[in-house]
Task: inverse folding
């Protein structure tokens, strides 16, 4: 069993990493700021980098999101306080391609993407890691609440953060072995309260800075408006609300305004609570149903990425989370002949949303995950209780 250090012991670990260079992705928030401090205390040669991702003319440049101009200034002040170098690196092209364009296209196809997962995989890790290695760094580091472990099979895997309420492993399930082997996540050993206490104790200017809640490039939380401004004529117009039998119930504002499980903003005089249960982009319809229509026992996911194992060569019983704040439900997973993964839940899950990710856990460790397709899963080809 790993030794459990007190907070004071953990941030005063012997400086045994002298000579190792690490680039810390500094967002201007308290988590990445304390990550830089902890790594410096451990003897690393720390360099702070803030990623420039805002697009020309975008509101992001002026707001207080994780990579806006205010974030750059906050990160610069922290780096100055920690006496480490700080640079701003241009990742606008990578962010537009892998995050913004992806976000827009998914909504146009009637799906609800998670842009933070795409950003983590392709920008915060792939792009930042390659630039960091090119400048002689041994590692990159972030302020995520997760831990990295090397398993007995030789593979790297994410382990839930010590403060389970803030655990962020769900959004990191698709990191590669190469990326994990060059990554440090020092705040994963702490709770959020402990991180703020450290920041306050050492006098960091961001000690009480609130967490960012919205998607950084949509600061007003108006996803549909953002998509309309960016995609213009590609955005589908009004269409029909229908029930599952195709009966027309009313008119909707456009499929980009809706997501599975949504109740508010439908403006349908149904006399009872109704919800979005399906989006049909091919015919520009939004299907309306009751709460019980949102529950399912099976889903199919695509784009499978595995972490604790190289591949899924036999059925396994896992804890599966279908969204960031989902507590998880036990399920049996099996790889289908076409490479997709069938997930059969032991208890029904609500509002499994196409475009969102499902993350698989075995104990505290991330096994892998994939993206929910929304396709009917059909009949189970094995029973969850048959999985040892």
Result:
């Amino acid at each position: 069993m790993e030794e459990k250090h007190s907070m004071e012991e953990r941030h005063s670990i012997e400086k045994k990493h002298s000579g190792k260079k690490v680039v810390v992705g500094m967002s201007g928030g308290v988590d990445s700021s304390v990550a830089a401090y902890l790594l410096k205390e451990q003897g690393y040669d720390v360099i702070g980098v803030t990623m420039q991702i805002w697009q020309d003319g975008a509101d992001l440049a002026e707001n207080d999101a994780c990579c806006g101009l205010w974030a750059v200034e906050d990160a610069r002040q922290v780096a100055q306080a920690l006496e480490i170098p700080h640079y701003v690196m241009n990742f606008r092209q990578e962010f537009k391609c892998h995050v913004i364009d992806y976000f827009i296209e998914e909504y146009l196809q009637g799906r609800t993407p998670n842009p933070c997962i795409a950003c983590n995989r392709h920008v915060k890790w792939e792009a930042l890691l390659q630039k960091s290695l090119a400048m002689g760094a041994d590692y990159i580091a972030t302020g995520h609440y997760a831990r990295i472990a090397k398993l007995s099979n030789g593979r790297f895997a994410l382990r839930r953060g010590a403060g389970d309420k803030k655990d962020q492993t769900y959004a990191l399930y698709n990191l590669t072995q190469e990326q994990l082997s060059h990554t440090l996540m020092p705040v994963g050993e702490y709770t959020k309260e402990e991180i703020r206490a450290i920041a306050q104790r050492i006098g960091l200017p961001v000690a009480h800075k609130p967490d960012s809640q919205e998607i950084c490039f949509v600061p007003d939380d108006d996803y549909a408006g953002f998509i309309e401004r960016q995609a213009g004529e590609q955005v589908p117009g009004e269409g029909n609300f229908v029930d599952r039998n195709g009966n027309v119930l009313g008119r909707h504002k456009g499929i980009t305004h809706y997501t599975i499980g949504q109740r508010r903003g439908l403006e349908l005089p149904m006399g009872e609570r109704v919800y979005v249960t399906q989006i049909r982009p091919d015919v520009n319809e939004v299907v309306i149903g009751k709460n019980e229509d949102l529950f399912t026992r099976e889903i199919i996911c695509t784009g499978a990425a595995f972490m604790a194992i190289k591949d899924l060569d036999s059925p396994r019983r896992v804890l599966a989370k279908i969204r960031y704040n989902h507590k998880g439900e036990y399920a049996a997973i099996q790889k289908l002949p076409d490479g997709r993964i069938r997930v059969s839940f032991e208890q029904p899950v609500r509002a499994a949303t196409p475009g969102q990710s499902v993350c698989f856990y075995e104990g505290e460790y991330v096994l892998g995950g994939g993206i929910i397709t929304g396709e009917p899963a059909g009949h189970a080809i094995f029973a969850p209780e048959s999985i040892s």
About this structure: The chain has three domains: 7-201, 241-289, 294-386. The CA atoms of residues 54 and 242 lie 39 Å apart. The longest strand covers residues 295-306.
